[in-house]
Amino acid sequence: MNLKDTIRTIPDFPKPGIMYRDITTLLTNRRAFAEAVIQLAAPYMTQDIDNVAGIEARGFTFGAVVAYELGAGFVPIRKKGKLPFDTYEQDYELEYGTDTVEIHADAIRKGERVLLIDDLIATGGTAEAAIKLLRQTGAEVVGAAFVIDLPDLGGLSKITKMGIPVTALVAFEGH
Amino acid sequence: MNLKDTIRTIPDFPKPGIMYRDITTLLTNRRAFAEAVIQLAAPYMTQDIDNVAGIEARGFTFGAVVAYELGAGFVPIRKKGKLPFDTYEQDYELEYGTDTVEIHADAIRKGERVLLIDDLIATGGTAEAAIKLLRQTGAEVVGAAFVIDLPDLGGLSKITKMGIPVTALVAFEGH
Question: What pTM was computed for the model?
Answer without folding.
Answer: 0.97
